[in-house]
Amino acid sequence: MADDTLYLPTKPAETDSDAGTEFNRLAAFDLATGDVKWSAAAGDKRTVIPVDVDGGNVIGYAEPTGESGGRLLRFDADSGKASLYQQHPDSDSENERDAYYPRHPPLDVYLDRGQFFIVCESLTGSEEFLIVAYE
């Protein structure tokens, strides 16, 4: 949330039947009126969630695909136009997917001082936690 705007992901609904994946949009709501200011896709048929606000612009996390790592996108506060903020390595996309995808839902995702973190319960089901970090 920023000053007069609330950023929310839409429910994943659009399906790419060839790849069997769902994707969504990021929507900006005017808190004074409740109207949608804009909504934007993350591109490449990715699901996106808001993680931070930077200078009035929202930073969204676009999850990895089977071929490439996740990325952080900066969405312009006025238009919703997306630009690349941070690209995660393609070589680590499997670890990133394991930490993020619904079979192991993350406890938290956040951006702090340029570092992006995904925190989830251990893949083994123990009381340990898995933290994946990118800068």
The first-to-last residue Cα distance is 23 Å
- Helix coverage percent: under 10%
What is the general shape?
Answer: globular
By secondary-structure content and strand pairing, the structural class works out as: mainly beta
Unreliable spans are: none
Number of helices: 1
- In round numbers, the mean pLDDT is 79
Taken as a percent bin, the fraction of beta residues is over 45%
- SSE order, one letter for each helix or strand: EEEEEEEEEHEEE
Main sheet: strands, sense, barrel: 4 strands, antiparallel
Q: What labels would you give this structure?
A:
135 residues, mainly beta, four-stranded antiparallel sheet, 1 helix, globular
